Amino acid sequence: MYKQTLYLCLAMEQIKAIKADNQEIFSLVYEEYHRQIYGFIMQRTKSDYIAEEVTQLTFIKFWKQRDILSEQLTIAVQLFGMARQVMIDLLRKEATRFKYEGASAVTPFTDSLVDAIESKDLLRLMEQDIQNMPKMRRLVFELSRKQGLSHKEIANLFSISPKTVEQHIGKALLQLKQHLYSVML
């Protein structure tokens, strides 16, 4: 009981300090709750992109609304409440955007907002994996898949055989496939 009372007093002092524009206390609160908010959102959305966005927007909202923070509620209660509301607002906004952009903006394999968000995360992971490939493999892969050049055209560009181009692309695809398979597990 004593610990709980002490914790509440400390939380109330932190809220008073934040309301008085104390950025140091705000930074401490950010450090203490950042991972927790991120995990809370990640657990519900399964999206790294949304978890990052919501976490940042939550702390921005918390700072902007510091004048109206309640001294009767803990920081955790207020932060998680804001995070939940920010998540709902962001999901609604994204749903509306997809609705008005139409099917052309959504890839064929996405049939819901969550699938679209997961696809964005997957594409970002793939792009990171492509950037981590050996230089020649990456160049050949990007010329083939992003620029649409034929194996023969790429071979002429680098003075290599079309078979070597084929091997680079095969290794690149295998690397992507293995990485994506490990991520999906």
TrEMBL record:
The keyword DNA damage does not apply. Residues 130-176 form the RNA polymerase sigma factor 70 region 4 type domain. Keywords: Sigma factor, Transcription, Transcription regulation. Residues 30-95 form the RNA polymerase sigma-70 region domain. It comes from the Bacteria. Belongs to the sigma-70 factor family. ECF subfamily. This is Sigma-70 family RNA polymerase sigma factor. It comes from Sphingobacterium oryzagri.
